[in-house]
Design goal:
The chain is an alpha/beta fold. The protein is 34% helix and 12% strand. It has one domain: Rossmann fold (3-Layer(aba) Sandwich). The strands form 2 sheets. The protein has a 3-stranded parallel sheet with strand order 2-1-5, covered by helices on one side. A two-stranded parallel ribbon has the order 3-4. Helix 3 links the parallel strand 3 and strand 4. The protein is globular. The chain binds S-adenosylmethionine. S-adenosylmethionine binds next to loops.
């Protein structure tokens, strides 16, 4: 199992984002997270918002690290990370009633950002 990666920014911004998600996702049940990165957000948000089914995703190379964060958490509401490159993969968005992505659009080109809305 690969090591967990750590992002200080994800640690810092988790609490204020969580405040927003509590409000915005109050009526939702399943969330696709695009560009989960280290997996820290998936772990934090799914453990706090236990009524949500949380689907982390990222490009293939980041999925082992996400799995490493989730491995010992024992959360029943987090699905294994989905290998999803929004430029060419289809996540089956209709399976989810909400989407979340943090700190991703600014590193994508415009066409890639648009493809997250497919
Ligand atoms: C700055 S990190 C943010 C990670 C995490 N959301 C956070 O806030 O800590 C940007 C993430 O976007 C992902 N990403 C970039 N291009 C992507 C694409 N085409 N499809 C899916 N994810 C992508 C990267 O792999 C990376 O994990």
């Amino acid at each position: 199992m690969p090591d967990r990666h750590f992002a200080a920014a994800a640690q810092r911004n988790a609490a204020p984002i969580l405040d927003v998600l509590r409000r915005e996702f109050a009526e939702h049940s399943s969330v696709l997270e695009i560009g989960s990165g280290t997996g820290q957000h998936a772990l934090t948000f799914a453990s706090e918002l236990t009524y949500l089914e949380w689907q982390p995703s990222d490009v293939a190379e980041n999925c082992p690290g996400i799995r490493a964060w989730l491995k010992d958490a024992g959360l029943s509401n987090v699905l294994p990370p989905l290998e999803l490159d929004v430029r060419h993969d289809d996540a089956g968005h209709s399976r989810f009633d909400a989407a979340f992505s943090a700190n991703t659009a600014h590193i994508m080109d415009e066409d890639t950002v648009r493809s997250t809305n497919r």
